[in-house]
Amino acid sequence: MTKKILIIDDEPDIVIYLKVLLENSGYSVVTASNGQEGFELARTEAPDLVCLDIMMPRKTGVALYQEIKMDPKLKKLPCIIISAYESAYSFKGQAFRRLIQDRTIPEPLKFFEKPIDVKVFLEFINGYLNKAKKK
User: Fold this and answer.
1) Cα distance between residue 71 and residue 58, in whole Å
2) Are 124 and 88 in contact (CB under 8 A)?
3) Is the peptide bond before 115 cis (omega within 30 degrees of 0)?
4) pLDDT by residue (tens digit) across 22-70?
5) Torsional sign, CA 94, 34, 21, 48
6) Could you please report the per-residue DSSP string of 30-94?
7) Computed from CA positions of residues 27, 119, 99, 105, in that sequence, does the dihedral angle turn out positive or negative?
8) Domain ranges for the chain
9) What is the pLDDT of residues 4-35, one digit of tens each?
10) Which CATH class is domain 4-134?
């Protein structure tokens, strides 16, 4: 069964790039251009993984991530952050924790900085989703 990935990013070029990259790697891809649309698609499309930008209109990636993790239907949905905001590495650990007030919300699976390292990105996604497939 083909794994489905939801890409949520307001930059059309990034969305197209990631969509083509992931589809060429055998994944089914759905996309959203803002946080609200992304949340709705997460609920209706039941993706296996979400790739989420931080800086977006209508709802930031941080707000959307919190909303996903607080929703009973979505809270186990794995999410990765892909962002050009400073350095993705600045979001790890304590920096990310300061943005999310609820300490019960876990950190995302992984942080990737734009532009992404394609090899590392695909290795991570393939490894994670192949491991998830075996469960």
Assistant:
1) 19
2) no
3) yes
4) 999 999 999 999 999 999 999 999 999 999 998 887 788 889 999 999 9
5) positive
6) EEESSHHHHHHHHHHH--SEEEE-SS-SSS-HHHHHHHHHHSTTTTT--EEEEE-SS-GGGGTTH
7) positive
8) 4-134
9) 999 999 999 999 999 999 999 999 999 999 99
10) alpha beta
Residues 60-84 as b or e (16 or more Cβ within 10 Å = b): bbbbbbbbbbeeeebeebbbbbbbe
CB-based contact 31:19 (threshold 8 Å): yes
Rounded CA-CA distance 118/74 in Å is 27
Residue 54, CA distances (Å) to 33, 38, 65 in order? 12, 12, 9
CA distances from 2 to 22, 64, 71 (A): 12, 25, 25
The whole-angstrom separation of Cα 76 and Cα 113 is 23
Identity of residue 8? I
